[in-house]
Amino acid sequence: MELLKQRILKDGKLKEGNILKVDSFLNHQMDIVLMQEIGKEFRRLFPDTSINKILTIEASGIGIAAIAAQYFGNVPVVFAKKSKSKNLDGALLTTKVMSFTKGIEFDVQVEAKFLTEQDHVLVIDDFLARGEALKGLIKIIEQSGATLAGCGIVIEKGFQDGGKIIREMGVHLESLAIIDHIDNNQISFR
């Protein structure tokens, strides 16, 4: 998605450890016009009309998923919570996820009533690095008995192994921008 790539080059900031900050337009402050284009592109890439839920993980994926949901017929967005909450009740679908940027492991959970065997689920998230969040969300879908329709990622770090791992699992994975290299404070895309 050329619009996204240009925005990354213009406003993305590189930090030590190959961390790309896109907080000015994607995952802290959101450019809604760009988000709408991202939602339209996910719809184009996932034309399956049986998709009836979008699953993401808190917090950065929520805004992206919510805007994308409009282009899938305003389907519900379910997000996996990273912390136990007093308002979570009933049966829970749970797994562990290691956060690349935070360097800690989270217990993530979704109330089982929100993902069922009747659901065809599209996973949407902002970044894919090592694939831990996606693997965790896929495990939650498997626990629920729902069907995984695919995974949509806004930015994939192609120089890390997450995309390769997820694709080798046979998952339909689409990334809107795949970063091939980050060298000398320069970003190159596939």
What features would you describe in this structure?
With 190 residues, this protein is α/β, with parallel strands linked by helices. It has a single domain (2-189), classed as Rossmann fold (3-Layer(aba) Sandwich), CATH 3.40.50.2020. It has helices at 2-11, 32-45, 60-69, 132-144, 162-168; strands at residues 13-15, 19-21, 53-57, 77-80, 92-98, 105-111, 120-128, 147-157, 173-183, 186-189. Helix 5 (162-168) links the parallel strand 8 and strand 9. Helix 2 packs across helix 3. The radius of gyration is 16 Å and the shape is globular. The model has no long low-confidence stretch (mean pLDDT 92).
Q: What characteristics describe this protein?
A:
190 residues; alpha/beta; Rossmann fold; two-stranded antiparallel sheet; 5 helices
Estimate the strand proportion.
25-35%
Number of helices: 5
Low-confidence stretches: none
Q: Could you tell me the mean pLDDT? A: 92
User: How many structural domains are formed by the residues?
Assistant: 1
Based on CA atoms alone, the radius of gyration comes out at 16 Å
The first-to-last residue Cα distance is 11 Å
The run of helices and strands is HEEHEHEEEEHEHEE
> Strands of the biggest beta sheet: in what spatial order?
4-3-7-8-9-10
| Total number of strands | 10
Specify the CATH class.
Alpha Beta
Which fold name fills CATH's third level, the topology?
A: Rossmann fold
| Quaternary assembly | single chain
Domain Phosphoribosyltransferase: 49-158
Binding site for xanthine: 20, 27, 157
Main location: cytoplasm
Enzyme class: transferase
